[in-house]
Structures are given as C-alpha cells and as structure tokens.
Amino acid sequence: MPAAATHSSRLLAIVAIFFSSYILGIYSAARASSQQVQQVQQLEAPLASQNDSLDLQAGTNSSLARSDSRHPRWFPFYTIGRFSNDICTGNNLLLGTCVISGECSDNSGVGAGSCSTITSQAICCIYQRTCGASTSYNNTYFYNSNYPAPYAGGGRCSIVVTPPDSSICQLRVDFLALSLAPPTGDGLCSTDALTITGGASQVPSICGENSGQHVYVDFNGVSPITISVATSAGYTFNRQWQLQIRMLGCSSATLAPSGCLQYYMPTSGTFASFNYVSAASSALNSIGVQGTRQLANTRYGICIRKAAGICSITYRQVGSDTYSFTLTNDVGAVDPALLATSSVQSQDCTTDYIVIPAPTQGGVSLASDRFCGLGLVSTTTSAKPFVVYTVTDGNEDMDISNRGFYLSYSQNACPIL
Ligand SMILES: *[C@@H]1O[C@H](CO)[C@@H](O)[C@H](O)[C@H]1NC(C)=O
Ligand SMILES: *[C@@H]1O[C@H](CO)[C@@H](O)[C@H](O)[C@H]1NC(C)=O
Ligand SMILES: *[C@@H]1O[C@H](CO)[C@@H](O)[C@H](O)[C@H]1NC(C)=O
C-alpha cells in the first residue's frame, strides 16, 4: 500500500472516531437532560486511550463544570459517570437534593456531605431560607432569622413558594418547630399568626404551640403560595420556627386527597387540634374567665390513609391525658374524674365540634355524627374515606379552659368471613 493511502486512511479513522464519539456525546447529553440526570466527566478516557496517536489528554478538574448536561462540548473524550438528582439526607439530618457542589453554592444551598459514589463533586445540597426569600426547591427549610435562637418579635417574615413546573400540585408544610405567641382567650391569633395564602384551599391562621403539626395546600395552578409569619414586637415571647416545605408531584403516591388540610399515612397514630397542649391557657377571654387553647373560626378535614385490608377506624382520646377532648363547656366546673367519660360527652353540638361520619360506640350506631363537650368515648366508623372534620366558631365565651382534642386512631382489619 502506498504511504499516502495509509496516511489518509489513518486520518479517516481518526475523523470517524471523533465524530462517532461526538454524536454519542450529544446523544447522551440530550438523554441526560431530558431525564434530569447530572453528568460528571471522569478522568479515565478509554475512547482516547484506545488510540494513543490521538493524544488527547482530557481530564482536568476545570472540565468538572456544573450543568455539563447542557454543554456536551467535552463529551467525546471522557466516560460519563452519572448520578441522578435524588433526595438525600444531609449529615445535618435535613433533607436535600444531590447536585454538583458548584450548583449548590450558586443556588445558595449548603452542602451537607457527599451523596454519590460516582463522584465526590456531588453533594447533598440543603436549601435553607429565612425572611424575604422565594424558592422553587423541594424540601426548602424556612426558619426565623438566627434559628435555632429565638426571635423576639416584630414584623412579618415570608417565603414565596413557586412550583418549578406544572407537574407539582401540592405542598406539604411540616412544622418541625413552630412556637408563636398564644391565641387570645377567645382563640384569636391576634398577636402572632402563621398564614398560608395563594393556594387552592384555605388554611386557618395558626398561632401558639404547633411543633410536629403539618398542613397540605394545593397549588391553584396560577399563583405561588406565600407562607408568612407575622409577629408583634409588643408581646414578649421567644418565637421560633423551622418549617419544611415539601413539593408533591401531581401523581405522587403521597398526595393528600383534595380537601384534607392534614393527612396521616401510618396505620395508627395520633393527631391533635392546633395549639393543643394539656395545660390550660393563661389568657382570659372576653367575659373575663379562663380562656380556651382552641383556635376560633376553623373548619378543616383531618384525613387518614386507609391501609390495605382495613375496613374501619377507631378514634379514642389519648388515655394519658384527661383533657384530650375538651371542646365545649367549663372544664373547671366538672369533677376531674368525670372528664373523658361518656357522662360529659355531648352530641348536641352547634359551636365547636368534630364530625365522625356514621359513628358507632360499643357496636351501637349513633344518630348524630357530631361530638363536643368534655369527653369522647371510643368511636368506630366504616365510612370512607377516613376523615375527621373539625369546626370551631368565633365565640369561645363559654368554652372555659378548653384545650381542644388530642386523639389516637387505629385501623381495624376486615373480618375474615
Ligand atoms: C490508532 O491509530 C493507528 C494509527 O496510528 C491506527 O492504525 C489504529 O487503527 C488506531 N486504533 C484504533 C483503535 O482506532
Ligand atoms: C482535582 O481536584 C482534586 C480535589 O477535588 C484535587 O485533589 C486535585 O489536585 C485536582 N487536580 C487538578 C489537576 O487540578
Ligand atoms: C420532594 O421531596 C419529598 C421528600 O421530602 C419527596 O417525597 C417528593 O417526591 C419530592 N418531590 C418531588 C417532586 O420530587
């Protein structure tokens, strides 16, 4: 073979390798970005090393630029290590997203440990925000300035949550910590209030002690959701909050059914009214007697996910706490031994009450589904979905020293026929 021919066929081979790998690179880049997978170029370069004459020494750290999936330039000469932008648990135990460290710092995230075995450049990025922020990141944490140090009060502190795209339908907001000034003795959040606006559903104004509580809010498809904490500097109190804001996809298995402000997924557990604490309120109400802890003017559903093979659900007062169902009437006027018994349970309810649809007690069906008074005996229902509806009105005058409710639930397997 003539020397010239050998030379040109070698050239052809080089060009062919170059182009085929380049096209491969573009292809995988496009695939990667459509799958929202991030790519990292590794130092090994088998395509290049297959032919030393190409002598393309790839692999400097500068090529580890973020957002590589959108810039496939350097692709042909590297093998591609991939990791997906999964949810990760940071070494601070908060939830984050696994991203390239540069992307994390560019988006004002905080790296909390590595999250990929493919590359040390991938870190668990935690998004933490305080007053005046906006976010589109899943699992953003919203807290008072200087958290966990308390905030003395004054002004309004808000975060605006915009879904990144139309695949997000709902927010779950977990009150990891939420301690605000208590409501008045009439159950009004007039000193401090957490409000959540802009969603498709109404969230009551919330104040007092609510760590461990949560709410679900649907996006309305048009506006962002604003979470806002308003506090009064004139009232001395150690406020503190840290809320976890979780975005749920429209087809997520953990989406709360529409209309449920709260949603419990375990087979058994407990739930309580907002600001529930066993101790009485120290505030007086408008007629000068010891006020209620219950928040006034609420109407919402507390839903429980029915587990497989379950036919009914039973609600009980949390036994260790005799005040765990004190919704109407004067707690102090009743012999404490009678609290939580059938003698102080009422179904004649027009002001503050809970609704348990199609209830039975001791195997007997009850005519009314409303419960109020100062006691609730074990109540079972087969009505589905499992939901307890709660109502409070705006007049708490006669609800002296009430706490609200703190109930346990357990789901009952279907009978074997
Ligand atoms: C590498 O280049 C040589 C010419 O230097 C060529 O003959 C050979 O086919 C190439 N090898 C590969 C694997 O493409
Ligand atoms: C690449 O980065 C690693 C740490 O990330 C460092 O140890 C190494 O020296 C860097 N190499 C070059 C060529 O910059
Ligand atoms: C957001 O994070 C939660 C975990 O807190 C996860 O269950 C959920 O699927 C994530 N949402 C999206 C849209 O990825």
TrEMBL record:
Transcription in keyword set: no
Pfam families on file: CUB_animal
Top-rank taxon: Eukaryota
Keyword terms: Disulfide bond, Membrane, Transmembrane, Transmembrane helix
InterPro entries associated with the record: CUB_dom (IPR000859), CUB_metazoa (IPR058698), Sperma_CUB_dom_sf (IPR035914)
Domain (CUB) ranges: 131-248
Transmembrane portions of the chain: 12-30
Name assigned to this protein: CUB domain-containing protein
Organism: Drosophila guanche (Fruit fly)
Origin organism lineage: Eukaryota, Metazoa, Ecdysozoa, Arthropoda, Hexapoda
